[in-house]
Amino acid sequence: MRLEAxxxxxxxxxxxxxxxxxxxxxxxxxxGYRAQAKATVQSEEGESIPYxxxxxxxxxxxxxxxxxxxxxxxxxxxxxxxxxxxxxxxNVEVSGGAFGLVLGxxxxxxxxxxxxxxxxxxxxxxxxxxxxxxxxxxxxxxSNAPLSTEATSSCAHxxxxxxxxNSSSSAGLIVDNRTGTGDGVRGYATAAGANYAGIYGVxxxxxxxxxxxxxxxxxxxxxxxxxxxxxxxxxxxxxxESSTNxxxxxxxxxxxxxxxxxxxxxxxxxxxxAWGNDTSASDTKGDLVLQGAYxxxxxxxxxxxxxxNDRVVIDLDNDNNSSNSFFRILGGTDNILWTVSEPSGLxxxxxxxxxxxxxxDYGQRLMYAVEGTGVWLEDLGSAKLSENGEETIYFDPIYTxxxxxxGEYQVFLTAVCDQPVLLYVADKxxxxxxxxxxxxxxxxxxxxxxxxxxxxRLGSETNRMDIYTTEGDGK
Length: 475
Hints:
CATH topology of the domain at 2-143: Immunoglobulin-like
CATH class of the domain at 2-143: Mainly Beta
Largest sheet: 9 strands, mixed
Number of helices: 2
Helix content: under 10%
Order of helices and strands: EEEEEEEEEHEEEEEEEEEHEEEE
């Protein structure tokens, strides 16, 4: 377990206000933890020190949430000796690695103890499930070096390391820069790792640690880096929220020729989750919107899978303002493999049409479709001639409404009997046709027969080997 911070300093003054600032670094490699702790103080007579910190693993991830125990002891020596002061904090809530406490709240930390001069602070930690405390080493020295009084051109003194504590329903610190340029607050840091930052915010309740707002149209929070401009680490690493119609909770822009506006990646699950407020399949609300004249989904891999637990629906020409909408599948050289057009519903395929049939002895075999020069609808049936050698076949009423039987249609007959028979169509109408049959000696036959009717599809009577033109932009 590690507890990281900077060299501690103590400013001993003649007035009753004592300012003490320290950040500690102590390492115990066997535990595999890191803890960043920052503490500043402004208290009367030095009796208490507000102390906040963050426990992380060696990889920079927050430790498991839970209740920890922390023991603090102040010594006059770097090792050994008897503690000048000591106290234990039980039931320290750690959430997302962050915690906060006040040194001197369990055992008073007297001004006389701090006035002794240089001292050494030792820290021990007991985490959830640990049977005993682990002492972190080495101890950290506290010196009585005075705080810097280096001044800037706009301020006669420095506030570096000070801690200000009070209550406010609005803000603890407000910095107002109205020059039109420059920053309200700017922080610098040279430490590496995700646990250190130029500006570090901690919230021990449910609110954000850092909050940014812009009322002039600019970004509320802006990040710039040669690596990651904005970095979030937590249950939800980065959360964006917008209450303005047409705007975005999270907005990503890339100005590079081959960059990405937004990237989502997961080690073992989905890289991006889209969750829209969609309650109907018939409206235009959805989970994912592709902006621009051309919406494209591309995979660098060899396979693009679309999964559904029930249905997949593609709505062509949703705004109903196009006369040549289509859904198309292309080959590697952008050659057309398959197309369905809207509103005609015409399906065009470059190759042969086939269905897959499972056979008992020969496995799966392809059964090819019969193709013609026009658009035809067929009907099949069987019948038997009466004793006078005649039979009237009436069309199925559904077939009469799908096929054009007013014009020309064809009837094909096949005799099914044990003697030679001549079969012919004696009469045709839009409702029926009459079949007659006779033996070779001219007598009426009562032979059975099969028939096949071929008629143009209603509305497609003039289609015959039409010239195909590519719709749209060639794709």
